[in-house]
Amino acid sequence: AAFRAIAARGRETPFGDDIRAVRGLGQERPLLAWPLTISMLALAGLPATVGFIGKLYLIEALVAGDYTWLAVFIAVGTMISLAYYLRVVAAMWMRPGEEATAAPAIAGASSEADPIDPDAGRRLYLIGPALLAAAGAVFFGIVPQPLVELAQQAGSSLF
């Protein structure tokens, strides 16, 4: 969800993947801002997302395996990462967007080959996968049992 939303937004602005590209996204393109918000919260490991469930099971396994020191490092790293992830969310919802006049800054592309597409955030093939991934992050964060069973089956088939 995060990569798809950033890719769509990078086509709309000349800022590429810079934080300036997402400023004001919540007011301009909420349909694109919500998947990015949900994915940032999932990456940070907030409850009701699949990121929380993944970190929870990882920390439980580390503590059970007498690697508590590593579980503490993960918890501290999660707190530090919140500053980075929430910075993106704050830029989307709490900052006004910037007016852009230059060509897009897409890595490896010339401005003539890939001009600014002001409707990129409205194209279903760009935002559809982001919306689907964000919905999956919330669904499996609330109902993690199907993923747990899948992981158990995959683990039992390996051994």
Kindly describe this structure.
- By secondary structure, this protein is mainly alpha-helical.
- It is 66% helix and 0% strand.
- It has helices spanning 2-12, 25-28, 30-44, 50-64, 68-94, 124-142, 145-158.
- Helix 1 (2-12) packs across helix 3 (30-44) and helix 3 (30-44) packs parallel to helix 6 (124-142).
- The relative contact order is 0.21.
Q: What is the topology?
A:
Blueprint: H1 2-12, H2 25-28, H3 30-44, H4 50-64, H5 68-94, H6 124-142, H7 145-158
Which whole number gives the mean pLDDT?
84
Query: How is the main sheet built?
Result: none
The number of strands is 0
Q: Which percent band covers the strand fraction? A: under 5%
State Rg. 18 Å
Instruction: Give the number of helices.
Output: 7
Briefly summarize what is shown.
This protein is mostly helical.
Keywords:
7 helices; globular; single chain; 159 residues; mainly alpha; 66% helix
